[in-house]
Structures are given as structure tokens and as C-alpha cells.
Amino acid sequence: APLSGTPCLAYDVAARLDDDPSAPPASWLLIEQDHAALTCGAQSVPAGAGIVELRSRVRYEVDGETDQARASRFLRERGFESHSVVLYETIALPSASVIAHGDGERIVLELDDRPALPAAD
Fold first, then answer.
1. Which H or E run contains 5?
2. Which long-range contacts (CB under 8 A, 24 or more apart) does 96-105 make?
3. pTM of the model
4. What are the tens digits of pLDDT across the range 87-116?
């Protein structure tokens, strides 16, 4: 994940001027998503080919100088010059469940709120 540096299956990073995580998509300054290649049985989704669907976003809280530097670099690379934005980083950890379904020509990856199965040893 770009802000926290947490290894993940998928992420959504977003920025707003206010603290309204339930605001409509058109009101966000930035929404950036990505995901790893996913496989379930004979079906696969190439890395980055899907759209991450979220029920809610998680506000990103800077925790120390490393996080601050990472967030500053992330914003600078996307044309933001100040920290006047509220950042959100929502991630699916490698052990998370993801539901994939078709939506027209898109593949939608829905982050599943159910507890994931323990990682296999």
C-alpha cells in the first residue's frame, strides 16, 4: 500500500478537502486503486485489471517520520503541494477475502468484510 507501506492484496488511496468518507465519488480530489494478480480455481484477474469496490474508506493517520515522508512523496508525485487534504488508505491484507464479479466489461473486486481464513502454513 502506497501510504503505509503495508504488503497487501489490494488498496484504495483517496484524498478529500474535508473528512467525509461517504461522499460521492465525483467529489473526491483523488481516488487511486490497485491490486495484485488474483486466481481462484481456473479463473484469474490480472494485476490492476479490476476495480476495487469499497463499503467504506479508512482514514490514514500518519505515524512517525517515515509515514510522513511517504505521504508527502505520494502527494507531491500527484501534484498536491500541501497537506491540506485528508487521506484515506483502505487495504486488503494478503490473507483477506475478496469477492470478484463482472459488471459489464469491468471486473469488480469487493473487499469482503467476513473474517479471512487463516493463512496456510
1. none
2. 96/9, 96/10, 98/9, 98/10, 98/35, 98/38, 100/38, 100/40, 100/43, 100/45, 100/50, 103/51
3. 0.82
4. 999 998 888 888 887 766 677 878 765 544
